[in-house]
Fold:
Amino acid sequence: MSFWNDPLKVAADWLEGVFAGWGMDAILAHVLVAFLGVFLLITILMVLDIFLVWIERKVVARFQDRLGPNRLGPFGLIQPFADIIKLIIKEDTTPGGADKVVYNLAPVLSMMSVLILWAVVPIAPVMLGTDLNVGVLFLIAAGAIGTLSIIMAGWSSNNKFAMIGGFRQVAVMVSFEVPMLAMLMIPVIFAGSMNMNAIIDAQNVWYFFISPLGAVIFLIAAIAELGRAPFDLAEGESELVSGFNIEYSGMKFGMFYAGELLHAFTFGGFWAILFFGGYRFFGLEQVSPFLAILILVIKAMLGYWVIMWVRYTMMRIRIDQMLGFNWKFLTPLAFALLLVTALMNALLAGASTWLYVFGMFLANVVTGWIALEIARSATRKERASVEGPKPVEAHH
Amino acid sequence: MTAQQIIFLIVALYTLGSALMVVTTRNLVHAALWLVSTLFGVAVAYALLNANFIAVVQVVVYIGAIAILFIFAVMLTRKDMRDAGPQMNSNWWAGALVAVLVFGGLTSLLSGWSGFQNTAAALPSGFDAISLLGESLTSPEAFVLPFEVASVLLLAALVGAVYVAFNKK
Structure:
């Protein structure tokens, strides 16, 4: 096995050999090497995060017909470093009456809830943190920690706006966890496993083509989980100034901000893994693990770009609209789709691949169409009851 | 002592310490946050037992739903967040007595068990705990009836909650 086929294992074996040569205990050497691996992954992610700031600002500039950062370095590439220096030397304030421990713990937990997700991300066929057999559920568990960090930040800041922002964000996250969990079950039904790597292995046809509606609902739930527009009512600049992170300054605010960007990129990655074949692209991933990483990063970036596209196109919705949309439309639709998918999966068990894909695609389209028709008639009735009877149009 | 035992002892001490903080801290929100910490320790204990699924579900259900609900309820019902009332009522000794009795009873029961001193055997390779769990929850020979009864109970609770909250026009 050479370095180019399995770089991580070769490097780990070499390092363990070096540590053993120093007379270190084998178990201790193993733990130390695993720790170094985690450290390396987190470092790479944090460095990537710095460039995500630049990417986000450049892309939003394109969407809004501006130039974006363009003064420091080529294409403004040095701008994020200048931002970091500013954040670090900024005064670190704590509001009066704040709960100090909880207040300082919240940004750390927020960042942690994002970084911990990468423990189950298969970056290449041979490169993954841990081959957890419940990888899909792990995503929701990490989201629970994110929810907790936001409620902690909102409560401990001793600020009414922060508190309201925290409440709103938690309402969004708790609500949209339900359709997200249901949609996570769809790749699980197809692959027959909750293991991320097994889900990628089973995707000879991208699950996007088998369950386009599932992919779209997952994306909507992911955007809500991220707290980005149109679900950014926790930030709501026009009403709440900045929501749950209003009292944070300097690098503590930076942690929330960087965490959100990395979270968006990570969900782009999960979207790619669950519905677009992850690191697979016409057998290219077998050539070299480095190529597989490149494919996954490109796919994750495309997912991230879609999330940004939605963010800078849509308007913010009100909280009652958000809750109504989720509980009256998205959650029932997600459960209906899950039922239809499970039924069709049982019906088409012996069918050929093309028939299976076609049948599933059709079932998705029909489910989505029926849901939209029901929603349309319901909203028509609601609108009619608010507006009253239509005035008879005057004849000219 | 093996490494696993040392890790277990650390986790157990952490969980117990957090649990003690839940009942002794004066601030209700702090108590809820310590409860999250306790539940997290329990999840780690499940992970140490190779029960990945239960560990993750513990985090999803208890931290993601129940603890968040606790914090919500505390925040929505208390006017003052800095409340510092008495942390115990007059029945504290009964609770402590029950806790000690349960601990003593479980210890004496388990010490009579033949496998008490054994270390756990390693899982055979290819052992798929989730499939086994899923099959035993849906197979008529195993636990399908209790599983369905629990599901119906939860559904009834859900319908009841909707009925209580429903605003008749």
Q: What stands out?
A: Chain A has a mean pLDDT of 84. Chain A has 14 helices and two strands. The interface with chain B takes residues 27, 97, 99, 102, 132-134, 137-138, 140-141, 143-145, 147-148, 151-152, 155, 163, 167, 170, 174, 177, 194 of chain A (CB under 8 Å). The CA atoms of residues 140 and 181 of chain A lie 7 Å apart.
